[in-house]
């Protein structure tokens, strides 16, 4: 894969910001922490990493919009092109010294994700994709898993702790799915969950209440690795709703057979 100038810029921004993230991670116990909302934390490291990313993106393409988790504006202003940035996806892990967090940068044109990077600075793993060009981990092509039975599938999820009304129906669905699959994991970083699913480490992923910056880059990775991404009803409104199911085509169909009841209830409420 020969990255486009846009993807190269995202890669460079992610790597430079990753150096700052690692420096701050080494002093995580001394970081200044603020609470944005229920179970929604932001550290000074998030802000420093985002500042570095935006410096590179705006220097390269000053005419393009940016939607970033810690900055304003969060809505598109001028351009059909828009960077979507999560400086540290997995902030709770980060501030507790758990080395499972990622930098996520996606480039969207209107409603389509055109390029994406998910970078895990602790391991140096860089997941990248461009629309129509495949998904890669560093220099190696990645593909989704070939598992075809939900009973054999390792599924990843995330608890909607920032959205209290979602929690009771989510736990009901979790209790229904857990006995049907091989096992389930909750890692604390949706960006890495999607990247790992794209790489075949997880057989599927589902979560509710996500923001666009949590999933934009990971969605492209998953699709370019051969997977299917939808909302809980099997439709294409996941960026708007924040509810997502992602897997290979066979496991995706089996997951949606269970999640669509929850999705339908949310749509009608």
Largest sheet: 7 strands, mixed
N-to-C series of helices and strands: HEEHEEHEEEEEEHEHEHEHEH
Which CATH architecture of the largest domain would you pick? 2-Layer Sandwich
Over the alpha carbons, how many angstroms does the gyration radius reach? 17 Å
Q: In percent, how much strand structure appears in the residues?
A: 25-35%
| CATH class categorisation of the largest domain | Alpha Beta
Count the E strands.
14
Spans where pLDDT lies below 50 across 5 or more residues: none
Helix content: 25-40%
Question: Helix/strand/pairing class, anyone?
Answer: alpha+beta
Head-to-tail CA distance between termini:
45 Å
User: Quick check: average pLDDT?
Assistant: 91
The 3D shape can be described as globular
**What is the H level of CATH, i.e. the homologous superfamily of the largest domain?**
Fructose-1,6-Bisphosphatase, subunit A, domain 1
CATH topology of the largest domain: Fructose-1,6-Bisphosphatase, Chain A, domain 1
Question: Notable features of this structure?
Answer:
alpha+beta, Fructose-1,6-Bisphosphatase, Chain A, domain 1, D-Maltodextrin-Binding Protein, domain 2, 2 domains, 7-stranded mixed beta sheet, 14 strands
